[in-house]
Amino acid sequence: MPIAIQGFHDPVTGTVSYVAHDPATRQAAVIDPVLDFDLASGRTATRSADALLAHLQALGLTLQWILETHAHADHLSAAHHLQRQAGGLIAIGAHIREVQAAFGRLYNQPVQDDGFDRLLGDDERFRIGGIEATALLVPGHTPADMAYRIEDAVFVGDTLFMPDLGSARCDFPGGDAAQLYRSMHRLLALPPETRLFVCHDYPVGREARWQTTVAEQRAANIHVRGGVGEAEFVAMRRTRDATLGVPALMLPSLQVNIRAGQLPPAESNGVAYLRIPINAL
Fold first, then answer.
1. 98, 106, 113, 263: which has the fewest C-beta neighbours closer than 10 Å?
2. What digits encode the pLDDT tens for the residues 219-272?
3. Is residue 110 pLDDT above 90, yes or no?
């Protein structure tokens, strides 16, 4: 039986989390889970993650993997929360070490026990139940972005957006527009019927969508359709990125996400604190 996929869209951050499972073995992977966070109050909540857990429970699934496509800058990861509630191994691309080093310097906190159980290399294969999956290195948005190919489906992270939105920014530390262009074309070289599942959607004038195909992206993606070359794409991306502000949750989220969703430990008063570097960006 083919892989079964259910998407969960978080309208607050535009993030889409997924549960993919093997119907034969009832083993499942969760991809890019969200921990709800209110910046104004500093409060976390598990509404989004609890929807994933409810889905697992309703279908009688065992959580085998929690897969991160990259260290997200727009939401906190619920990977650690999910693991505590349902088990599973937390995995991310091996190049996360570069991201950890860059942001460890920013926060003046070297990353040691980072909470990841598995660091995946390019073309590394693993199994979700009886179904084989492959990790694909697709850098550009960050140096550590991974896509996960499972049968005819690929979870692309921020390497591609829906065709009317195009592509993600490349101005984070280690980001590279030329690399992103090549990563996009690595995915676009897959068979045209390949299903692509994006990590974010920010719809204007339409409902949120998160599934597309290689054929649709080749024909309609506003940033790469029509034979757009690498130099043209890089110029567009750099010009566009220069107009973008810092994501609202970047500073809170990255210090959590480079540690697999682990919040800082509580201090002597029982309260945990996030660091905000002043005048550092």
1. 113
2. 999 999 988 999 999 999 999 999 999 999 999 999 999 999 999 999 999 999
3. no
Q: Tens digit of pLDDT for each residue in 135-157?
A: 999 999 999 999 999 999 999 99
Residue 47 lies in a domain: yes
In a domain, 34, yes or no: yes
Q: How far apart (Å, rounded) are the C-alpha atoms in residues 163 and 219?
A: 9
Residue written as tokens 């929807």? 51
Helix ranges (DSSP H) in the chain: 47-58, 79-86, 96-107, 177-188, 214-220, 230-241, 250-257
Q: What pLDDT sits at residue 96?
A: 97
Q: Is residue 175 assigned to a domain? A: yes
Q: Does residue 268 lie in a domain region? A: no
Instruction: Give the confidence band of 28 by pLDDT, cuts at 50, 70, 90.
Output: very high
CATH number at residue 146: 3.60.15.10
How many structural domains is the chain composed of? 1
Q: Which whole number is the average pLDDT over 20-34?
A: 98
List beta partners, residue 18: 7, 31
Pairing of strands 76-77, 43-45: unpaired
Task: Give me the domain span that covers residue 51.
Answer: 4-247
β-bridge pairing 62-67 and 118-120:
unpaired
Kindly list the strands in the beta sheet with 62-67, ordered across the sheet, starting from the edge strand earlier in the chain: 4-10, 15-22, 27-31, 62-67, 89-93, 118-120
